Amino acid sequence: xxxxxxxxxxxxxxxxxxxxxxxxxxxxxxxxxxxxxxxxxxxxxxxxxxxxxxxxxxxxxxxxxxxxxxxxxxxxxxxxxxxxxxxxxxxxxxxxxxxxxxxxxxxxxxxxxxxxxxxxxxxxxxxxxxxxxxxxxxxxxxxxxxxxxxxxxxxxxxxxxxxxxxxxxxxxxxxxxxxxxxxxxxxxxxxxxxxxxxxxxxxxxxxxxxxxxxxxxxxxxxxxxxxxxxxxxxxxxxxxxxxxxxxxxxxxxxxxxxxxxxxxxxxxxxxxxxxxxxxxxxxxxxxxxxxxxxxxxxxxxxxxxxxxxxxxxxxxxxxxxxxxxxxxxxxxxxxxxxxxxxxxxxxxxxxxxxxxxxxxxxxxxxxxxxxxxxxxxxxxxxxxxxxxxxxxxxxxxxxxxxxxxxxxxxxxxxxxxxxxxxxxxxxxxxxxxxxxxxxxxxxxxxxxxxxxxxxxxxxxxxxxxxxxxxxxxxxxxxxxxxxxxxxxxxxxxxxxxxxxxxxxxxxxxxxxxxxxxxxxxxxxxxxxxxxxxxxxxxxxxxxxxxxxxxxxxxxxxxxxxxxxxxxxxxxxxxxxxxxxxxxxxxxxxxxxxxxxxxxxxxxxxxxxxxxxx
Length: 613
Hints:
Elements lengths: L1 H28 L2 E3 L7 H15 L6 E2 L15 E7 L8 E6 L8 E7 L2 E6 H8 L1 H4 L6 E11 L13 H12 L4 E7 L4 H10 L7 E5 L38 H7 L2 E5 L5 H12 L3 E8 L7 H11 L3 E6 L7 H13 L3 E2 L7 E2 L2 E9 L2 E9 L11 E8 L2 H15 L11 E3 L3 H17 L5 E6 L5 H12 L3 E6 L16 E6 L4 E2 L2 E5 L6 E5 L5 H5 L1 E7 L3 H15 L5 E3 L19 H18 L1
Parallel strand pairs: 1-6, 8-9, 11-12, 12-13, 14-25, 17-22, 19-20, 20-21
Antiparallel strand pairs: 2-4, 3-4, 3-7, 5-6, 7-8, 10-17, 11-15, 15-16, 16-17, 18-25, 19-23, 21-26, 23-24, 24-25
Helix pairs in contact: 2-3, 8-9, 12-13, 15-16
């Protein structure tokens, strides 16, 4: 099994390398050239050395390989240069060093001076290869060769059972242990000399059972998310200003607007700043008594959390569930937990064995002697950074039945062993899978009775086998099912007698499709839901998730319109699990439909229609 997987990885790596070479060729046609340490001319070389001196050198702290006592000193998933140090006079033996590429402190891409219309880009590690020899010259080495390496540690957290410690303490200790985790993958430049490779394997405690892979000269291509904006305009996504929501004014109360009617926000087409503004208003409103909120992944410099801190300072009762088990965000979330506790916020303890993945905000306000609740249920994290690139939907409501059930959820987080019955919200790990199963069963009954029966499902991943079997059963009964699934999908559509009534597309574009939306025909009276949950075992069984009904007819139509736009995408939509897999989907439409652009135009048009009324 592992050999088969490694073979697939090797094949994918070959395809990836070829694709990167093709992209470089296409960039050259647009006068954008990548150059390495051997290709710079004299003028560029002067620039590179000056850049190295002023910007790069202060971040370099070489470790002599023979002095390395433990691999614990090296950072997981960082890029290192394994340096072969040479004395061309022959007076000193060849030596070796490790130098981390400081790509978190400096841009991975260095722009060299242009020549006319030609733009030149250099990888940061190539800048180091070109100029780094001066660091080692005082040791008697006047020449070097440097090869990229990267190793990955086991990221699973080892949590002991010391009952004398709080779960927060156990998590904090586990995060520290992760930094010393066992290496499970080691990737290196194929051109690295055998002598240096053997030394590295020995020093880093890499064994032959670990995944050792020779690869190319460059790694961590995720850094291309921050590639500089250079070249002709047609290579760039034109800048898009977030749209204002026609019902929310910067100069009037957001709480008052929500009190009048439910409001649906769509990020990043509309600004996440509305959530920050709502919290700011709540923090200073004398009638607001309490704010409750869940966090899964907070931004590094979170204005949302700063708003909660300000609310606590203003005497509001602030309650926060900050999920410290959020994978790879544990350390940041532990930090924010401490900051909130310092300011007097109440922190709901993390639930061992379960994660709180639901995205909830609740504001309690005293109005005419009565507690009135305002709720926000979202498909995405309360993270102003990711909200600029993640496409999510966020419901603001003062529907007291829904808002009080959100309040019940916060009580449930504190006492999870006595779950209440919910009339409106669909909640895991108690009812969510069964609720969706019942909704599909209803469609099956309607299809068999000759009534209107269909479903539209938008998620990031479909993995749960039980729900997939139910989808197959619905298809076999004649229910038409349209699925938009960006990520993993184990369901196979279009199989005669099994899934011929199911279609699956994936949309990958400039924004990450992240929302989870569900619409069920319900015999002509469609039911609409937005949710934080994918259809995976972990979401159904091991996480606190919420699917919230959308009752306002105008918002139902809004959701349906946006889903129909995505289902008609013939530019960025790909076919999933059919031959050829992941090929772009063609439609009968003669005009191109790039759904993310069409959704922006749709929301902009609605704004104009509202203003003209």
